[in-house]
Amino acid sequence: TTLFRSGSACMGSPMPNVVDNKLYYRAKDGLNVLDMSTGENALIIPGFSCESYMIYDSKIFYTVGVEQGEANVSLMGGFLDAASSEMQVLYRSSEPVSIVDDIQFNIYGDNIYFVTKSPSASDARIVSKLYKMTLSGEDPVVLEDNVTWFNIIDKDIYYKYAHNDDVEFSRTQPMYRLISGDAKVIDSPGDRSEEHTSELQSRFSIS
Asked: What is the spatial distance between Cα 110 and Cα 58, in angstroms, rounded to a whole number?
């Protein structure tokens, strides 16, 4: 069954997001939601534009950047029934979009984890970091430096540094794993014993 077809109504990728049998998607007129039980479609945030987004606990979290005319990339958040102008800035990069041009984020255990990215290999080694903060944008902390990608699986964070314009250095960087509330290890079968500091243990905790 075809629920919706990407076409003239969509602006770039529709970025479909399914929550509680409802399909949210980005279109030219803003953020739409399709009830998959009834087939009813509604525009819920007129004029909505973003780089990426996620629906969580009746709220929307999303990033904005150069395509939205922003001088600095930001991570935004707010209730689904709020207007775009009422959304809260949860994190704004202190660097311009020429240096930090993207934010990769995920939500786990009522916290937001995100990585700041750069188009420049030389800048990426300085500004690409893994952060953790609350859903309201409070208490942002840097968990690790030199991180351009991460994923969360079973409470553990897997991350590494890799940049298309920094191939040789990227090849030397292992995949790391932050074991929930415990230690940092190199994620390889031959070495899972490299412990991180107690400072990291206090900063990293997934509940």
From this structure: 13
